[in-house]
């Protein structure tokens, strides 16, 4: 990848997409190695023909079903990137498809609207509101007018507040370690990944990125610790091309493994765990730090799935937003693979994956655990209720409302709004 600096995210995208379009030889290897392709209506089409239509479309040619499905059936796993003989990253072509489709007036999948930050009916805001009152938040939702200089800023991102029990565990660990930090949530501040690459809105994505960096710099931190692997990808793969960062950036497992001597494990966990190597984790080289942390926990037994040494299966997280039926198929295949391990827990650091696992955890015997949660438990810390797991065990919308009403009403959501959105979120009838 070029080290050249660009003046904007749009200039960067335009440059690399133009190069990819020119260098693509239409071999179709990226399609042949795609996890989602066999699950789409175009599975019997020749991969070379599909890529010919994609490249023609990106050069200003005709719109087709094949083009739309390549863009919005992408699960973001990146296995296509490993197979290109030209060294092109086909994920960038998929993102370019979304950008061009929006330019031409095509509508993105409806579920995409649920993850755009700042909207009242935002998926992550609603899930957070179901689980806790505003008074229970242990993070800032906006940057103060005169923030105190802090050594570390823990930026949560937009989706993790939907998993408050897992955030609370990490914050407990950092406090026990004596780390100087402030915690800042996403929502009003956003890395931009919900706009682009996921949504194809380059301008909005860049605006959010610049706003976020300005907000982080206001604390004059030495380091920004990220909890969301989607944010980490933005910081690692995209921001360096058009933004200047004057602080170090680490994912939280990288920070913890560097400070392993400060993790005082006092409670062996006699559990069998499989580490899910999420697509985003694999793409951003975080697997080693995740695995080393789990291996350091006394009593924990790590087991692998059948695909760990080959091609890790995808949970369907991104596809759940862009093509929900396809995403659910991917999740079901992965759940069956996990069951074969006999693991008590599936450990993971990607919030998209964790949210995608809940429907299958309801049906099967495994539980979803964040790595920070396991570390906190092994350090003798507080165990927080996984309220999403509780809600997924409910048999009706009324039951979820009864259990969560005090929380969501204190967050200014109404029963009527919950009756509208909960059936879709928890796969229940109204």
What does this molecule look like?
Helix content is 47%, strand content 7%. The chain is an alpha/beta fold and 430 residues long. It has three domains: 9-107, no CATH class; 112-259, Glutathione S-transferase Yfyf (Class Pi), Chain A, domain 2 (Up-down Bundle), CATH 1.20.1050; 263-388, Rossmann fold (3-Layer(aba) Sandwich). The strands form two sheets. Strands 2-1-3-4 form a four-stranded parallel sheet. β1, α8 (164-177) and β2 (181-184) form a beta-alpha-beta unit. α1 packs across α6, α4 crosses α6 and α19 (397-410) packs across α20. The relative contact order is 0.12. The mean pLDDT is 89.
Present the secondary structure layout.
Blueprint lengths: L8 H15 L5 H4 L14 H12 L6 H8 L6 H5 L6 H14 L19 H9 L20 E4 L8 H14 L3 E4 L17 H16 L5 E4 L2 H10 L9 E4 H7 L13 E4 L3 H5 L3 H10 L4 E3 L15 H4 L1 H16 L5 E4 L2 H13 L3 E4 H8 L8 H6 L4 H14 L4 H11 L5
Parallel strand pairs: 1-2, 1-3, 3-4, 5-6, 5-7, 7-8
Helix pairs in contact: 1-6, 4-6, 7-19, 8-17, 11-13, 15-16, 19-20
Residues in helices, as a percent range: 40-55%
What is the top-level CATH class of the largest domain?
Mainly Alpha
Shape estimate: globular
User: What is the typical, i.e. mean, pLDDT?
Assistant: 89
Number of helices: 20
Order of helices and strands: HHHHHHHEHEHEHEHEHHEHHEHEHHHH
Estimated share of beta-strand residues: 5-15%
- Please indicate the count of domains: 3
Strands, count = 8
Largest sheet: 4 strands, parallel
> What is the CATH-assigned architecture of the largest domain?
Up-down Bundle
Q: Write out the strand line-up for the largest beta sheet, numbering strands in chain order.
A: 2-1-3-4
Radius of gyration: 21 Å
Which spans have pLDDT < 50 for at least 5 consecutive residues? none
Question: What is the fold-level CATH name, i.e. the topology of the largest domain?
Answer: Glutathione S-transferase Yfyf (Class Pi), Chain A, domain 2
Alpha-carbon distance between the two ends? 49 Å
Q: Which secondary-structure class do the elements indicate?
A: alpha/beta
């Amino acid at each position: 990848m070029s080290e050249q600096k660009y003046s904007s995210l749009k200039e960067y995208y335009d440059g690399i997409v133009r190069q990819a379009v020119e260098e693509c030889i239409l071999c179709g290897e990226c399609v042949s190695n795609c996890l989602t392709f066999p699950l789409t209506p175009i599975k019997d089409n020749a991969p070379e023909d599909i890529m010919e239509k994609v490249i023609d479309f990106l050069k200003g040619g005709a719109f087709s079903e094949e083009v739309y499905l390549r863009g919005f059936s992408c699960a973001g796993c990146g296995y296509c990137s490993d197979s290109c003989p030209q060294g092109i990253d086909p994920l960038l072509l998929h993102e370019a498809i979304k950008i061009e489709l929006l330019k031409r007036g095509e509508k993105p999948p409806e579920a995409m609207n649920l993850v755009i930050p700042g909207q009242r009916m935002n998926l992550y805001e609603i899930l957070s509101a179901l689980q806790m009152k505003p008074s229970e938040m242990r993070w800032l939702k906006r940057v103060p007018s005169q923030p105190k200089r802090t050594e570390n800023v823990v930026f949560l991102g937009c989706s993790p507040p939907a998993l408050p029990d897992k955030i609370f565990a990490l914050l407990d660990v950092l406090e026990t370690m004596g780390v100087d930090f402030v915690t800042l949530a996403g929502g009003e501040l956003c890395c931009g990944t919900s706009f682009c690459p996921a949504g194809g809105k380059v301008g909005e994505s860049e605006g959010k990125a610049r706003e976020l960096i300005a907000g982080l710099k206001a604390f004059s931190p030495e380091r920004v610790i990220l909890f969301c692997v989607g944010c980490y990808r933005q910081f690692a793969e995209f921001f360096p091309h058009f933004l200047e960062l004057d602080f170090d950036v680490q994912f939280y497992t990288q920070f913890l493994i560097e400070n392993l001597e400060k993790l005082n494990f006092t409670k062996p966990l006699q559990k069998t765990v499989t580490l899910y190597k999420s697509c985003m984790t694999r793409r951003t080289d975080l697997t080693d730090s995740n695995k080393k942390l789990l291996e350091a926990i006394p009593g924990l037994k790590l087991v692998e799935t059948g695909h760990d040494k080959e091609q890790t299966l995808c949970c369907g997280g991104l596809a759940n937003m862009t093509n929900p039926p396809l995403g659910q198929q991917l999740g079901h295949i992965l759940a069956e693979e996990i069951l074969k391990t006999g693991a008590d827990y599936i450990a993971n650091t990607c919030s998209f994956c964790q949210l995608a696992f809940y429907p299958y955890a309801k049906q099967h015997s495994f539980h979803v655990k964040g790595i920070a949660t396991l570390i906190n438990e092994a350090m003798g810390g507080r165990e927080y209720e996984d309220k999403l797991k509780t809600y997924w065990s409910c048999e009706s919308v009324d039951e979820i409302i009864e259990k969560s009403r005090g929380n969501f009403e204190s967050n200014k959501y109404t029963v009527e709004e919950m009756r509208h959105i909960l059936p879709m979120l928890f796969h229940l009838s109204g």
